Amino acid sequence: NAETNPNHPTHSLTLAMAAAAAGLGPRPGLGLLVLTLSLLPRGAPLRLYMVHERGLDLDTAGAFFRPEGRPSRDLAVLAARVKRKEMLNSGPDDAPFRVLDACAGSGARGCRYVAHAGADHIMFNEPQEGLREAIERNFGTAAAFASANPSAHPNANPDHIPDPDPNPNPKKKRKLSVLKDWLRNRFKPNPNPNPIVTYEVRRGDASRVFFKCLLDNDFYDVVDIDTFSFMPRIIQAAYWVVRRDGLMYVTATDGLASGGRAARRTFERYGSWTTPHAAVNEAGLRYLVGFAAEEAAKHGLAVRPWFSLYSSHGPVFRAMLRLERLREAPDGEVALADNVGLYAHCNHCPDGSALPLSADPGVWRCPSCGASSYRLAGPLWTGPLHCSDALDRMRTEATALGWDEAAELLDTLVEESDDALPPYYYTTRDISKAAGVSPPPLGDLMATLGQSGARVARTHIDARAVKTDAPFSAAVDAAREVDEHRRRAREAKARAKAAAAAGASAAAAAVILAQNPTSNASPSHLTRTQIRTQAEEEDEEEA
């Protein structure tokens, strides 16, 4: 890749080593080393941990980094762009846009906020040692990108060119000392090419950093918490540093706790009880948002999910939450109780329903089979997982940036944001199993349900699932109707094909009889060999 791609970070190094292998120069000692290093750009790492994402060449430095997580980073950047424009339209123009990356790793995720969302100040916090240089180097790359792209940061100064010489008036030194200084400066992190953007790097536990920010009156508009597994204490401490109407991006990667296979672990971490069912991945998002909402209420805050995202690698559950004053939320203090409830799952079929916390579970009946035997899960978030207004503005930003994949994902999230849809979905596998037919195409199933008056939508969580306000029994009937329609279509196609074949045979027989008028044979007496021979002769004549 380095030999064929001029933009590869080790391209120059590869060419220099190839030249040395070809025998250029009588003494490939210190001179070859200097030649090799001089071909590298200033600040280039001697590592192969480089990733290219949305125009940025970032050094992961061996830190944990998933290229598959780009959709979640894209949506976070788009939400931050929307938030930043809100600040510019409603507040003073000189109000800085501040971002805190609580678990930065190599800083790749935080640098996306600098390069694409126009962050004026960013704090990187990473507990792991040995990543500070990579963070500073990546910040220099992101700041340079922001300077060269005013659409990402309108206040950037593209004419600013950093002084490449840290010592403009060097004194005479010995050659070896000069070489040492040159090598030291060559591999220092890039200086900030955009002095308008400031940054800070800390190393410590995220919750302790949050409390330190609280003591220093240091608050942020976006706080990104990308933790491993699920750490409630970090989310609990993050509320102290998020500004009013700010965004908090929370994470959980514990698939066992949210998937109903470790109910006790779910209770220990979320304070909720879980049970296995078909829509456990959506339930995982709802456990996460529900926990964040309950903790926010303790601070007098209400959460409004701008978007919630499930990724199968991991799995990873992420939610971008806007924090608002509880007394200013819709319906005041009852907003939390209206959006947090229980989920009743039938023991006899895949159906279920959401129940408010004030409901009497003893009178629940399955809407499909009428059974009264069920399992309860919760408390969990039963309100909308997305804000349609925020998604529309994010999609506008994605279109402006040319991020087609993010725009398609946002289209699916917009479908899911319908308030009339229940907090779960049905898979085509369960539907076809109950109907006794092959799994129907999702589009045909949704069209059939829609014709019956039901609300339907796709879900980004499972490509073979449908969200609908119709009961499971209605989905089963729709699957049977789709299967019957497809069966009739196959039969009609087979009849048409047979009729076409019969028509072709009759036409060929008529030609043969016309060429042999003395023959007593009728078309029914002609053999297939004769017909095939005649067809071959016609093909030869056309050729």
Count of beta strands: 15
Distance between the termini: 49 Å
Amount of beta strand: 15-25%
- Please compute the radius of gyration using only Cα atoms: 32 Å
Number of helices: 18
Give start-end ranges of low-pLDDT stretches. 1-16, 18-26, 42-47, 154-176, 181-190, 519-526, 528-532
Cα shape: globular
Q: Pairing-aware structural class of the strands and helices?
A: alpha/beta
Q: Numbering strands along the chain, what is their spatial order in the largest sheet?
A: 5-4-3-6-7-9-8
* Helix percent band: 40-55%
The overall pLDDT, averaged over residues, is 80
Largest sheet: 7 strands, mixed
Characterize the structure shown.
The chain is of the alpha/beta class. Helix content is 44%, strand content 16%. It has 18 helices and 15 strands. A 7-stranded mixed sheet has the order 5-4-3-6-7-9-8, sandwiched between helices. Strands 11-10-12 form a 3-stranded antiparallel sheet. Strands 13-15-14 form a 3-stranded antiparallel sheet. A hairpin with a 5-residue loop joins β10 and β11. α3 packs across α4 and α16 crosses α17. The longest helix has 44 residues, at 472-515. The radius of gyration is 32 Å and the shape is globular. 40% of the residues are buried.
